[in-house]
Amino acid sequence: MIHSPTTRKINTIDCDSVVHTPYLSVLHGEFPWCLDNSEETSDSGDIVSSFDLVIADLTSNTKTSARQKKIQEHCHPNTSWIPYTELFMKEHSSMLVFSPLESIGAYVDALLKAGLSYHTTYLWQKTRTEKSLDNSDPFLAILWASKGTPDSVPFVTETRLINPSLIATTNNSLPVIGNSEKSSLLQFLVQSFTKPEMLILEPFTGDLELMAICQKLSRYCLAISRKRSLVRQAERLLLQSLQQTA
Fold this sequence. Notes:
Layout: E1 24-28, H1 33-37, E2 51-57, H2 67-75, H3 81-87, E3 89-99, H4 104-113, E4 117-125, H5 128-134, E5 139-146, E6 161-162, H6 164-170, H7 181-193, E7 199-202, H8 209-216, E8 220-225, H9 228-245
């Protein structure tokens, strides 16, 4: 069960295996059902209204390679998870949804129906190198919504464009975590939307980047992944971290 940092550091709610550090917890399962069905979470009130930031990236979980089917899925994405996610958000907390450009309208409608306040959509402009690596569109939308009125605007960009130069300017005085452009983006967002000791939920974990960033920046993170192989990778990462701090 997850408790507020004021009482104790996060424990791992687990459907399979338990590995956690003071700041990181990994759960193998499908959001949100694994949280509801876990024997250790019969009292779901422990994690309701707990998180300061939700970062939801379903773009890395796309399995289809057929272009026409991919476009159809982008225009009609699965948004059923959004109302459940709202239950786990604190008042004044934020949600960031990574989305293909074709999915923006569907996600905005779902966010509003869930009772969240939609603010804006940022565009992440990838570099040519990053685009060639993942063979995707040069732009990715990042929708910002909040539960109630946010405490502040995290950053201002007149064009709503997030590019490497903006990230470099913001992160200039801070240590760089990770080598990829995606890591730089996540670090920028975590630093913009949260402060140390705040709680972050990653309901659709596709890699270890956000977990590594949260650990370095002293944010509490609960990561949920359907990939058993990724959970094993996370276990090795977390065990190495524990050995280094022992």
